[in-house]
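Onboarding guide, step 5: your first structure request.
Type a short instruction followed by the sequence, for example:

Predict the 3D structure of this protein.
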Amino acid sequence: MRQFTRFKSANPDCLLFFRMGDFYELFGPDAEAAHRLLGITLTERTKGMPMAGVPHHAAENYLRRLVEQGIRVAVCDQIQDPKEAKGVVDRAVTRVLTPGTLVDETLLEAGRENLVAAVAPGPDDRVAIAIAELSTGAFTLQSCDRRDLADALARYAPSELLIPDPGDLGEDDAIDPDLAEMIGAVVTHRPVWNFAIDEGERVLRSHYRVSSLEAFGLAPGDLASAAAGGLLRYLLETQAAGGVDRPLPHLRPPRHRDEDRNMRLDLSTLRSLEIERTSRSGEIAGSLLSVFPHCRTAMGRRSLRRRLCWPLLDAEEIRIRHRAVGGLIEDRDAAENVRQAITGVNDVARIAGRIAVGRATPRDVVALGRSVIAAGPLVDLLAARPAFAAAHEQLNAAVARLSPLAERIDQTCLEDAPTHLREGGLIRDGLDPELDNARGLERDATEWLAIYQAKIVEETGIGALKVGFNRVFGYYIEVSKANDAKVPANFVRKQTLKNAERYITDELKTFEDKVLSAGGRAIEREKRIFAELCLAISEAVEPIAAFGDAIAEIDCTACLAETAYRLGWVRPEMEDSAVLELTGARHPVLDASMRDRFVPNDCALGTTDQTSTLALITGPNMAGKSTYIRQTALVVLLAQSGSFVPATRARIGVVDRIFTRIGASDELHAGRSTFMVEMTETANILHHATDRSLVVLDEIGRGTSTLDGLSLAWAITENLAERGTRTLFATHYHELT
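The system replies with C-alpha cells like these:
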C-alpha cells in the first residue's frame, strides 16, 4: 500500500491501475470511481479501504472505456519477477494513457487519426500549435492569430489539447477555456514553464540529438519551439520514458504546415458541410467521408480524411491527383490489381509506433514483414504508370531498404504468431542453437517419462502406477492406495489424494529441474530474439514511415477511383479563375444513397464578364435550397481534394476558402444568442472572403425582426456581389430578388 500511495501521489490526476498478480487493482477513491465508471464490483482490501479490480488479460477493454470518457489512467506494472523478489515486488508506472497519446491497437479507431495538440500563446495575439500522433510518429507545427485558433484546431480534430495552466497566466494570455468543447477535445493543463521557448528548444535539441533546430525550420526564439517542446515533454512523460533523454525513435522531426498550400476551412464550414460526421448525430454514416468506403487499409482511410479536410490550392497539383484517379478508372484491371496488392498490407505506421514505445506484439512484427513482402508486386505494377511516379519512387525506395528486414522477420518468425510471448511459440526451429537445445529437452520429456514409467513399473511390480505432471506440483508418480504396501523406500510422498498418493524420486526430481528450466530458458531466449528484432525495426522507422505514407496515398487514390467509377463521377476542369460552372451536378452523399432518384441541377457563377458571381436561391420550405447550396460547396471541395465529382461536367476556378453560414444554433454558455452566433459567423465571412472564395449562406437575418433581418440580408448580399465573391444565398426574403 505504501507503493500504491507513492505512485498515486506522483500521478494525482490519473486512476492508478496497480498490478497485483493476475489483476490490476484500484484502491480508495480510484476504486470508487472505477466502480461508478465501469460497473465493476466494489469490495474492500482491509476494513475501510475500498478496492476494485480487473483481470490483467482483459484490462485493455476497461482502459479503452475509461479513455473514451476522457479519464487519464496510469498503469503500474510489476517490473521484477516475483520469484526473484525479496519482499514486495518492484513496480513502476510504465505508461500513462490519455485520450491523445494512445498507441495500442485495441484502444484506437483504425481509420481515424488520434492526435494530441499543444498551444503556446505568444505576443501580438499570435499562437503556435504543435500536433502529434504518437501512434504513427507524425509531428506538425502551425502558427495563427488567436482569433483563428478554433478554426485551425478543428481541422486536426485532436482528442486532447494541452494548454498552459490558466492560473499561471494573465487573463489576456490565457487560452479560451471553451476552446476544447468547441473542437470536441479533452483539456490537459500543463505548467506554464513547459511552454517557455528556451525550454522547448532544449527538449527538442536533446530528443533529436542536434545542436541547432534550424534544419527543422525553427529559428532561435521561434514560438513554435515552445509548443513543440511542451508537447514532446508530455509525450515522453506519458510513455514513462524516464525524462527527456530517452527518445521516442519513431517520432519524426516537426514540420511546419505550408498554410499557402491548402484551402482554408473554418470550424463552422467543417460542421456545416458534414465532412467527417453529421452535425445532428455525430455519426460517420451520412457524412461526406461515408461516400468513400473502398479503402483497403487503415492508413488509406486516414489519408482520405486528411485530403477532404485539407483541399489543395495549386491547380497543377490538383490535376496530378485527378490524372492518377483517372488512370485507375480507365484501366479497370490495373485498378483491381492495385486494390488486391494493397489488401495484404497492414497498418505499418502504427505497428512501427507500437514497437518504438515497447508495446508491440509478435503478430505486429510478423504483420510488418508480410506487408513489405506483399508490396513487392505493387512496386512493379506502378512502375509503368506515370500518374503514380512520385508514389512509386517513394514506395520502391522504402521496399528496397526494408526487404532485408522483412526477409529476416520471415525467416525468424512463424507465420501463425501468438498474441504474446508468455509461453513462446514465435521463433522457428533451426534458427538458434540455444533455443533448439532447450526445446529439444522439452520435446524429449514425453519419451523419457514413458521409458521411466515402464522402468519403475517393472522394478516395483505396480502395474497401475503412472507418471504425470501438473503446473502446481510438477512431475509426480501416482500410486493407488491399494498398492501402498508395494511403494519402495526411495519414493518421497508429495501429495495425498482421496484414492491415491503421489510421490517423487531423486531421479524424477533431477529430470524435472532440467526440463522446467529448459522451458524457461526457451521462453527467455525467444524474448531476447524478439527484442533484437524490435530493435532492428525501431532503427528503420524512417523507411517504414515512407512506406506507410506511399501505401496510404495509393490506397486513397484507388478508393477515390473506385467511388468515381461506381457512381459515374467525372473529372473536373480546374483553372485559375473565378468561374464556377457545374452541369448535371448532384449532392455526393445523396447521390450515393439515392442514385437515380436524385434530380441533377446546374450552377453558373462568373462564367463570363456578364454572369453574376452571386445567385439567390428561393423557394418554399423543403424545396431543396439547403441541399443545393451544400451540394455546390461539396463538389468544389471534392474537386480540390483530388477527387472526381458528381456531375456531367464541372469547370471550377480554384477556391481559396469555403465559407458557410447554415443552420440556427446558440452558444448560451458563452453568452451568445442564436442571432449573435449568426452575426459573428457572417462578420467573419465579410472580413475574410476574397474574389477567389466561395460563400454559402442560408437564411441570413432570420434571428431578428423581419425588417432588421431583411436589411442585414440586403446589405450583406450587396457587399458580396460588389466584391465579386462567388456566393450562393438561400433565402425566403422575396424582396431581395
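Each response can be followed by summary notes, for example: The first helix runs from residue 2 to 10.
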